[in-house]
Amino acid sequence: MANFQTHITVAVVGSTAATALCAQAGLIDHTQVLPLIALGTLAGILPDIDSDHSVPTRLIFNVLSFAVAVATLFTLLGQMPIIPLLGVALLCALFVRYIAYSLFAGITEHRGLFHSLPAALLFGLSTVSIGIHVLGWSLSFAWLSAAFVSGGYLLHLSLDEIYSVNFMGSTLKKSFGSALTVFNRSSWLSYLILYTAVGLGFYLLPAPKGWISL
Ligand SMILES: [Zn+2]
Q1: d(CA 101, CA 121)
Q2: Which end of the chain is more exposed for a tag (fewer CB within 10 A), N or C?
Q3: Domain of residue 152, residue span
């Protein structure tokens, strides 16, 4: 399996090159360059969120707990005095960072569902949904961002597969085939739920207008 350093380097190089191509083709303006590179890079380390106590897991849960604290502050601002409000926000952040993190680490298995094709698609579709409903992005930018998220994610899975090939003796390591999983019989129900969610996402989300016709 590729290590964190390899993943982050390939993700940065890949998303920067893809962003440059999009800018060249006139698909994005200069304000959209950095968000796309950041999204592609984050997606390139996201699958390893399932390996407990790894750098990406800690990083993602730190960002998430900060986001939850900020969201709590904004939601309850004006509804309660500021000192207790700060306390509530802190408690929510601690809950996400320690309790939700331990639960997540307990239920996920490394190279399980998160290292699969439907997971890559689902993260892309979630990007479209959050982009248009929460962040107010245009439809075309939301879908382009989704392509960066799914693309960065798939790049990670492909790298994991490439690293499971032993180049010297051209033999396959035991981990081959466990990174880019399309379906796994032993967890068929989870895959069924994932594929149903992907299908629903494609069905319910508005199709990008203009440069892609679906
Ligand atoms: Zn991985």
Answers
A1: 23
A2: C
A3: 4-52+108-204
Rg (C-alpha) for the chain, rounded Å, is 19
Residue 211 makes CB contacts below 8 A (sequence gap 6+) with 27, 140
Which pLDDT value is given to residue 64? 86
49 Cα: distance to centroid of ligand 1 (angstroms): 8
For residue 68, is it within any domain?
A: no
What's the CA-to-centroid distance between 142 and ligand 1, angstroms?
25
What distance in Å separates the CA atoms of residue 171 and residue 98, rounded to the nearest whole number? 41
85 phi, psi to nearest 5 deg:
-60, -45
pTM value is 0.76
- Indicate whether 195 belongs to any domain: yes
User: Which helix (H) or strand (E) segment is 165 a member of?
Assistant: strand 165-166
Q: What is the pLDDT of residue 56?
A: 74
> Number of folded domains in the chain?
1
Mean pLDDT of the chain: 85
Residue 164 confidence class, pLDDT cut points 50, 70, 90? confident
Backbone angles phi, psi at 110, to 5 degrees: -65, 135
Residue with token string 């997540």: 104
Ligand 1 centroid to 153 CA: how many Å? 9
pLDDT of residue 210 exceeding 70, the answer is: no
Task: Give me the residues near ligand 1 (ion), CB cutoff below 5 Å.
Answer: 47-48, 160
Q: Residue 55 Cα, ligand 1 centroid: separation in angstroms?
A: 12
The alpha carbon torsion through 60, 61, 66, 67 (nearest 10 deg) reads 70
* Ligand 1 center–CA 212 separation, angstroms: 30
